[in-house]
Amino acid sequence: MRFTDLLAPTGALLLASALPLSAAALEDWQFDDAADTQLNLVANSVGTAFWSNDDDVKTDGSGNLVFVQGTGTDPDNVFRNATLTNKDLSTGTYELSYRISAATLAGGDATGANVGFGLRDDGGTDLFVVRLMRQNSALRLEYRTASTTLLDNFNNNLTTLADLEIRAVVDLDADTCDVYWKLGSNNGKCVTGLALGGTGLEADLVRLAANTNVADWGAADEVKVDYVTFGTYTAPTPQAAIEDWQFDDAAGASFNDALNSAGTTNLGGAAANALTDGSGNMEFTVGSTDADNIFRTSDLSDPGQTTGIFEMEWFVTSADLSGGDATGANFGFGMRETGTNKDLFLVRVHKQNDTLRLQHRVGNTNTDLIDFGTTSVSDLLIRVSADLDTDTFSVFWQQGTGIGQCVSDIPMFEPGLSFDIIRTAVNTNNIDWGPTDFALVDYLTIRGPSAVAAYLSLSIVSGPGAEQMTLIWPTATPGTAVLESSTNLMDPWTEITDTPTVNGDNNELIISTTGVPKNFFRLRNP
Question: Which structural domain, as residue segments, surrounds residue 336?
């Protein structure tokens, strides 16, 4: 049940699904049992783990396990542990996922009703529980160890919801957990780097914890769970860089001249107030006039990208925008199409009402991702994943060693746009920026599928005329590929720079064979 593409804190793309392609199920309850199957009898299609019975928790015959108000003596709650088929897990990365088909927690006390799942050490300590909780008369999603971390309050206005998918990826070596969730057609979200309930704990049990007592739970309240799955998890291999500016140039290198260590393009034009600082950063400072902003476009080394997933990542060493107007100063990057000059999106640090926010800008609409509550930030990692097949993007951010957060499934400006240009947009005019304001960017890196060595095809046919041959290769060949010739395999290769003719899906280049023949031709990835 794949529902989105999210960002892993490692930089790899993390496929968010009921069970990702990179995971292998170890325990799997789909709750497709006959109606009224009791909790202890529901089928585990992979492992042997099971929960002991509770008379008030049964399947509905439509693929759900249903929690209702407890009928026993108050407190009649459901706390159950299912011993893993292979317990004593102390190393590696695992995933626990479940889906709430529907939930109504509108009766009972204002705070208390909840349903959740997690992992537990057989010594009696929860590694974590992720639960749907009623608090202050509204639903919220929480991460629970000895303390509680609020993940989502759903705008504090829900007592009923449907189609909530939850994934918890637990790293037993780092003693951390990353939680990903998506409610219906809303944006997916995540919080990463959450601490487990202790260090060195083992995963021994799948924990079920539900407060269903008659005080907390209304008579008509119910929660339907579609599945619970536990399995191993291996993060996908990160994509390699296709453009990479580390800004390690000598002090004073212009924006246009900064070294691109992965691609062939530059950043699209010099600016007097965007220079390397000699300490590994590009430094943006105030412009000289009220119109002196930095808007630059940089062609991709291999433009015309219409499919696949591309990452754009940058790191803000530090920034202080405490001077200037209360609203207006910003710096950020995005992706743009050449033909229409339309931005697919921009992601930027923006000053508004005297605080910095991380925003995404699509068309003329700005959406805050987080309000930092101050006019300065440091050690801020920003990573954007753009899916050109779904025309959506995701944003991940993290400050220092704190928790990371993400929002996914954000629509781009319009469907079908191509990724041709890296867009730099910085409002540095001397109205919005104060005289001592600055932003230091440590690096800007673009990753994508073009970084994988492409299969290159080159055909050679005689003709069309006497003493002529024609070289034929697909128009889909990466633009970075080099066409070369040589008279002997032991001799140097010479690049052929003649412009081919496009014939359908192929490039065609006619070569004369008079004089000294060129006996060998090749296409190569540089």
Answer: 241-451
